[in-house]
Design a protein that fits this description.
Layout: E1 2-5, E2 22-25, E3 36-38, H1 45-60, E4 63-68, E5 79-82, E6 85-91, E7 100-105, E8 109-115, H2 122-133, H3 141-167
Parallel strand pairs: 3-8, 4-6
Antiparallel strand pairs: 1-2, 2-3, 4-7, 5-6, 7-8
Length: 182
């Protein structure tokens, strides 16, 4: 079972006008490599983490630490103030997949989310969210993004072939059905 959450908080210090793009997998698959996917709108952790933790805190317990790989995050703050507490942010280069966000909670444990790049096409992002929350979840975050790249290339090639076929007369003018007389 997959849960996709669109979250717009009521009133906070800062108003989020756009819903949170998050898909969480069911917890009944032991040993899965990912627990879901998050599609932030920017690479600004200070701006993005408060909305994410606001949704996850009630589900997973208070998020206390987050780790990222600095390869894709231009600025990594040491601490990010979120709703009523502070989340510590750490980073690992070789030890952590660049496309993964690791969240830690004192009460429940650890979760790994695929981080979909902000500029990703919505159709590809939807495919990634589905793949990251599917029943198998046996691919790493980077493997999923490589598969998504391949998926995008195949789709573009199919569209190009279709355009050539159309331009060579493949689809003729659509026949209009005859008018019915009553």
């Amino acid at each position: 079972m997959t849960a996709t959450t669109l979250y717009t908080p009521a009133v906070e210090k800062r108003t989020f006008s756009l819903p949170l793009r998050l898909a969480l997998a069911s917890t009944d698959t032991p040993g899965a490599l990912l627990d879901g996917a998050w599609w932030p709108r920017s690479r600004d952790l200070t701006a993005e983490l408060p909305a994410l933790t606001a949704v996850l805190d009630p589900r997973w317990g208070r998020i206390t630490h987050v780790t990222v790989n600095p390869t894709l995050w231009p600025v990594i703050p040491r601490k990010v103030p979120v709703d009523g507490h502070v989340v510590s942010v750490g980073w690992f280069t070789a030890e952590q997949d660049p496309h993964k966000l690791m969240l830690l909670s004192y009460t429940v444990g650890r979760w790994d989310l695929l981080v979909i790049p902000p500029q990703t096409d919505p159709a590809i992002a939807a495919w990634l969210m589905t793949a990251a929350t599917g029943p198998l979840r046996s691919h790493t975050a980077s493997e999923l993004l490589e598969r998504a790249k391949f998926q995008r290339l195949v789709t573009e090639a199919d569209q190009a072939r279709e355009a050539v076929w159309d331009s060579e007369g493949g689809h003729g003018p659509r026949a209009t059905p005859p008018a019915r007389s009553v």
